Amino acid sequence: MNRKIAVLALLSCAACYSGDPDLGKCNTDSDCVNLADGGQLPGAFCSSKKQCEYACQQICGLAESCVNATCVLLGPEVQNVNPQAGWVSPSQSFLVTAQVDDSKGPGIASATLRVLGKPDIAGTTTDTGKIRVYSFSIPGAYQASGSEAPIPFTIIATDTSGGVTPDRAAGQGQARIDGLGPRSNGVTITGGVAAPPGQTPIRWFARSGSNFPAVANITDAGSGVKTDSLKLMVGATQIDTGIPSCAQATAQGFNCTFMIDPKLAIAALAQGEVNFKVVGTDIAANAVQDNTNTVGIDDKKPTITFAIGGAQNPYPAANANCNADPGNLFCGHDGAHFWRSGDGNNYTLKFSVSDSSGTGDVGSGVNATSGKCTINGVATCTVTFDSASGNFTFPADFSKGSFASGPDGTGTLNVTVDAADGVGNPAVQTPAQSVAVTRVKWVRKTPVAFSGAPVLSARLGLVIAAGTNLAGDPIVAVKVADGSSAWSAGAALAPPVTTVTSNIALDTTTSTDAAHPTPVLYVNSGDSFYALHIGDAGIDKSCTNSVTGLTGSPMIFGAGVSALAVVTGAFTTHAYALRPAGGGCIEDIPFFAAANTFTFGPPSAKGSSIYFGFKNTLPGPPVTTDLGIRSIQFSGTAFAALSSRSLGKQPTAGTNPAAITPAADLFFGVNADRTFFRHAAADLAPITWTITPLPAGFNIFSQPLVSGPIMLSSSNVLTAFNLSDAQTAWTVGTDLTQVSPPTLASTTIFVSDQLNKEMLSLDASTQAQRWAYTGLATTTPSTRMSSVATEATLGSDGVLYFGDSGGRLYALFVDDTPLTTAAGDWPRTGYDNCNSNHSNNAGFVCQ
After folding, report:
1. Res 459: pLDDT
2. Which CATH class, in words, describes the domain spanning 183-298?
3. CA-CA-CA-CA torsion sign (783, 784, 786, 788)
4. Which of 520, 681, 753, 763 is the most exposed place for a label (fewest CB within 10 A)?
5. 3-state secondary structure of 24
6. What does residue 179 show for φ and ψ, rounded to 5 degrees?
7. Of the candidates 619, 497, 518, 615, which has an alpha carbon nearest to the alpha carbon of residue 560?
């Protein structure tokens, strides 16, 4: 049978219950009304037994119930529930209207709004009749404290017969009462600098800086955020400017960008972590929930702690970096001075910077890259930050600061330091610290009365000097690093060396030939020539030769394995090589000899030419004297090509024969004439060069030197003559009794004098005195110079070495380096440590 026909037949019966099992179980009326094959069963409903039943011929209304197959009205029906738009706060009432329909009943008696757990609310109306609109006022207090969840409500009505709206016909809705303010989910601040380790991890800004952004995420599930009410507040002070720019982030949230004015956040000259809040309301006027955010604002200068000479920056201990030999060695490190140079590798100065004065006063911390130091106005030091100690450090290098030293070589330098905090506030500037500095590296007392210039060997780390010691070794070697005595030599040789009056020569070029090892020191003493091999502990091999009338200094030709020492006697010239086994030095080159009526002066060499003055006393009555200058060529294998020019005078210094200076031309002095002469190097011919004699009573003490456009004369004063016109260019002093041969540096001339017994530093351009050193008699040992100094030797490290007749060997920091020698120069009496201008010796470097 067709299902619809069967159902219609069923509906025509008068029974109130149909238990037809074919209809099946149900959960809602819809399960009964709508059939699986698309048909419908009007009037079907789902009973409390979850069984489809049929009671009436039509589906009853929401307010009706099927009773005995008849739809019976139970009470009024509530329709058109209309909550007010928007949200209200708990201090307000939420209004709802609803229409009550009792058109099928006896009439409306009342309408009631119900909220679970709250008193019912009676509706009010001005309408009459069986269809009325009622109003309800839900108190804001019905909202739970701190909640913005919508409140469900139900509306029912009662008719005049006592019938009540069934649940199916009741009105329903939600009251939107907002009792909870917006939530600030944190503020993101970018820019600035990160807090130092150990502090609150926030961003720091300078109070003097520009406004910076802070982005707050604010959400509200109720009435919504009132964005134009938002501010950032520190107590009662607003720290942002204007209205924030808010962008919708979610359906219920915004990202709001505020611009913080750091000057509003903290007082001038103060610093600290600033706690601020996002304040404002939602649309229902609920305040933003309590929140705390922190930013650092810094307008306070950090403080510097910097002092010299105390626990923070002590001076080097007495004898630090020197050999501990109090009776014989004075060290510039005396417990109260830094060295002028060289301490940067051994010592550092430090200063600390504080950006906090205790609890509650914290700042942005110290900028680890902000440290600065200035030495006498010159920023010559590099500051680093030691994170382990929290100190800034910089090398104790005072070599570049302007420095005026006194007679003992000491003086002071002003050192200032600076730093800034994390946001750039400069530190409170501390007064400049006075640092005591000395030019004295060390002074060693020896039993040798020094005469010639010291020689240096960078490879050996030694300064070697010689002079007179009648009771012991006249040759001493001192370690340049610490002034310790390395070795001495001479007295044990056969014959013993007692007196060295001229420059010594040192060849340190490398030789692996066991028959001719290096380094070799060449020395003239009396009528003996010595070649001394320097071993690990001193002289381990030597040879010697006797040369009658040996004069001047040895001159090195060649280098290393091929080196020869050329020396001149009274009337002979020799070339010697070291004999490692000792005994006589090897002379495998025929020597040059003149008649024994000749007396040769000290030799000097340039290239392959050897120059010397001579005096030839001719025999027979009446005795005549032949005086002049000579040159002889030396090829390295033979002496040849003798040239001679009789001048009627011989180069002299004082009463002794003196060496010729073979610069671009030949220059020499004649003490009896108190003047100087210039001859051609090639043919010994005189060159017209009229020079004004020195004043009466003056003496020439050494051969002249030539540097650039001037010739330098060492007499009672230091005099410079123009090479161009032989006129006096300048003089130093008026009558210093005697001056040493000057030592030429890049910008400085160093010269000593007998009158004041001091070493002078002169500006090479202006000849103005930069400083003068005499030493002190009160030190142990005494450093007071006792005579004019020897010719000084300047190391590439800017240390000047010289000796005096009292046995003191000095090492001074002099702020300059050796002059680069130009072609045509002859910058010292021996020209170099090897006493040779070796222009023809390719690859030879004299150390």
Report:
1. 86
2. mainly beta
3. positive
4. 763
5. coil
6. -115, 15
7. 518
CA dihedral over 113, 118, 120, 126, signed as positive or negative: negative
Strands (DSSP E) contained in 195-292 are: 203-206, 212-219, 225-234, 237-238, 240-250, 253-260, 271-282
Phi, psi of 425 (to 5 degrees): -70, 125
Enter the CATH code of domain 77-175. Answer: 2.60.40.650
Integer Cα distance of 435 and 395 in angstroms: 13
**What integer pLDDT is reported at residue 3 of this predicted model?**
32
Q: Which CATH architecture has domain 300-438?
A: Sandwich (2.60)
SS3 561: helix
HEC assignment per residue over 449-503:
EECCCCEEECCCCEEEEEEECCCCCCEEEEECCCCCEEEEECCCCCCCCCECCCC
DSSP H helices in 16-171? 29-33
Spans in the chain with pLDDT lower than 50: 1-23, 842
Which pLDDT value is given to residue 21? 42
Q: Do 584 and 544 form a contact (C-beta atoms < 8 A)?
A: yes
Which helix (H) or strand (E) segment is 437 a member of?
strand 433-438
555, 557, 559, 561 alpha-carbon torsion, rounded to 10° = -110
**What is the pLDDT at residue 623?**
61
Cβ-based burial of 443 (10 A; exposed 0-12, middle 13-18, buried ≥19): buried
Domain with CATH 2.60.40.650 in the chain: 77-175
Matching residue, tokens 């040369």: 547
Contact 603, 568 (CB under 8 A): yes
Q: What is the pTM of this model?
A: 0.81
Q: Which residue has the tokens 């504080």?
A: 354
| Cβ contacts of 459 within 8 Å, gap of 6 or more | 508, 519, 847
Q: In this structure, what token pair is assigned to residue 247?
A: 């962008």
The boundaries of every CATH 2.60.40.10 domain in the chain are: 183-298
CA angle 266, 272, 278 (to 5 degrees): 65
| Amino acid in position 557 | F
> How far apart are alpha carbons 132 and 734 in whole angstroms?
133
